[in-house]
Amino acid sequence: MAGARMRRVNEAVREVLSSQLAQGLKDPRIGFVTVTGVDTSPDLRFARVYVSVLGDEDERHAALDGLTSSRGFLQSQIAHELRMKRTPALSFLYDETVERADRMSRLIDEVAPRDEDEGA
Questions:
Q1: CB–CB of 55/98 below 8 Å?
Q2: Distance (Å, rounded) from C-alpha 93 to C-alpha 75?
Q3: What does the longest C-alpha to C-alpha distance in the chain come to?
Q4: How confident is the model at residue 40 (pLDDT cuts 50, 70, 90)?
């Protein structure tokens, strides 16, 4: 049962953060950022927020710095919108899943030819 509760908490925190990012923060370093997941500790003290950033490595680092500096505001928005025992301290991490999936796809394409190539 705790697993289902934690999934609901993680999803609720993700939704609040996503809506705040969609409305836009004042920090110009935060560009096109998508919250891909949230992992909250069972005691609700900490939450790792996984984000995907559109842009190069410099833009990624700038966006993570901007999110880190906006952490207090985002935590206050979570406290305001969600009724939780504690408001978790946020830490932002870059989610490399998209890059890994793209790399794996390219490697597979190199090794195995596509069906449409074989049919021609």
A1: no
A2: 16
A3: 62
A4: very high
